[in-house]
């Protein structure tokens, strides 16, 4: 599997209001039940995403190791999972919803992240701040479903293929940002900032 090809499998959307809504939609060549288990079983999640702990049931709470945590708001196997997505000392409103549906012999996967980020943070990075992270997660899921190895995000940008994937993702989110009405100059600045964060030049 060529990683860069996985980047083009996803459709990206942004709704830019007080609440920012980023949407990633793509097809996986795997049955809905398999994708659902990959997204909800703690052992499988740790193999492509992050280790998870908590009271993993409807109304319970979860914590991703070194990352977000929150409450499990909806859980309707094998088609809908919705959680609050809280990270940092003052996270504000943030929710993630995953919907799965059988389509074309596989699974249509749709992830929606709705949040109210600080204005200065959004102004600097735009949708790529969360979008690139989700692109990396969807790549990890694709590799997992195909029997591949987990993407190591800490060193991924140091590989030629990894750097190309990340920079392609920042550009794709820039296009979504522009389609949502952001000025071209602002988009270029946010793409540059996001690229520098996720794929810094060696030695920088």
UniProtKB/TrEMBL annotation:
<dbReference type="Pfam" id="PF08327">
    <property type="entry name" value="AHSA1"/>
</dbReference>
<dbReference type="InterPro" id="IPR023393">
    <property type="entry name" value="START-like_dom_sf"/>
</dbReference>
<feature type="domain" description="Activator of Hsp90 ATPase homologue 1/2-like C-terminal">
    <location>
        <begin position="29"/>
        <end position="139"/>
    </location>
</feature>
<protein>
    <submittedName>
        <fullName>SRPBCC family protein</fullName>
    </submittedName>
</protein>
<comment type="similarity">
    <text>Belongs to the AHA1 family.</text>
</comment>
<dbReference type="InterPro" id="IPR013538">
    <property type="entry name" value="ASHA1/2-like_C"/>
</dbReference>
């Amino acid at each position: 599997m060529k990683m860069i090809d996985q980047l083009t499998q996803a459709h990206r959307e942004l709704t830019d209001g007080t609440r920012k809504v980023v949407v990633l939609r793509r097809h996986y060549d795997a049955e809905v039940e398999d994708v659902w288990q990959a997204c909800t079983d703690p052992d499988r999640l740790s193999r492509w995403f992050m280790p998870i702990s908590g009271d993993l049931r409807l109304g319970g709470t979860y914590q991703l190791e070194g990352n977000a945590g929150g409450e499990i708001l909806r859980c309707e196997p094998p088609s809908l999972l919705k959680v609050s997505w809280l990270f940092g000392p003052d996270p504000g409103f943030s929710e993630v919803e995953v919907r799965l549906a059988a389509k074309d012999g596989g699974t249509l996967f749709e992830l929606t992240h709705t949040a109210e980020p600080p204005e200065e943070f959004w102004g600097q990075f735009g949708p790529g701040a969360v979008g690139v992270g989700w692109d990396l997660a969807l790549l990890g899921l694709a590799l997992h479903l195909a029997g591949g190895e987990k993407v190591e995000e800490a060193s991924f940008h140091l590989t030629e293929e990894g750097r190309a994937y990340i920079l392609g993702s920042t550009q794709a989110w820039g296009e979504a940002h522009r389609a949502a009405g952001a000025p071209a100059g602002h988009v270029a600045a946010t793409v540059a900032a996001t690229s520098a964060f996720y794929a810094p030049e060696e030695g920088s």
